[in-house]
Design a protein that fits this description.
By secondary structure, this protein is mainly alpha-helical. The chain is 48% helix and 12% strand. A 3-stranded antiparallel β-sheet has the order 2-3-4, with no helix packed on it.
């Protein structure tokens, strides 16, 4: 008789009891994505985010060059004489970074971005970020942020 009761109980549990479902919490992964970015720009955003998880770096470098490696800005004296150039993803100045700019590594997107991350990090540590990267103080302006899709948790954390 005990075996029959056990079998009946098992059949009842199998047919009528709902399994206990663990409560699943939705987990969102923070993201930043360039809207209508080209392949080069998307590569830069993905790399910078993966490497640093720092939205400030991405927005600053976007403000400097739109994350395009071929951007060159000429710095001129009042008489029009060019005294230096700002070049690349983070607009490295040719007077201060000529060794790297003239090296083969400058042509590699990832090596250039690594160098830029290093320059950015050192500028933060020295307290010179505002003069090293003009775009740092403008990184949350509408003209920059309107080009990105930023996850809600990131958007709140950086403002």
């Amino acid at each position: 008789m005990t075996n029959i009761n056990t079998i009946i109980l098992l059949i009842y549990l199998i047919l009528y009891q709902k399994p206990i479902q663990p409560e699943v919490q939705a987990v969102s992964t923070p993201y930043i994505q360039l809207i209508d970015g080209n392949e080069e720009q998307n590569k830069a955003v993905d790399y910078l985010w993966t490497k640093t998880h720092n939205i400030d770096i991405i927005l600053t470098f976007y403000g400097e060059s739109y994350l395009k490696g071929d951007v060159v800005h000429y710095n001129k004296l009042k008489d029009g004489t060019i005294w230096s150039k700002d070049i690349g993803y983070c607009q490295l100045n040719s007077k201060y970074h000529s060794k790297f700019i003239n090296s083969p590594d400058f042509q590699d997107i990832y090596k250039q971005l690594d160098y830029c991350i290093d320059v950015y990090t050192k500028a933060i540590e020295r307290g010179t970020i505002h003069t090293t990267f003009y775009a740092y103080d403008h990184r949350f302006e509408k003209r920059i942020t309107q080009h990105f899709m930023i996850s809600p948790e990131l958007d709140k954390s950086v403002r």
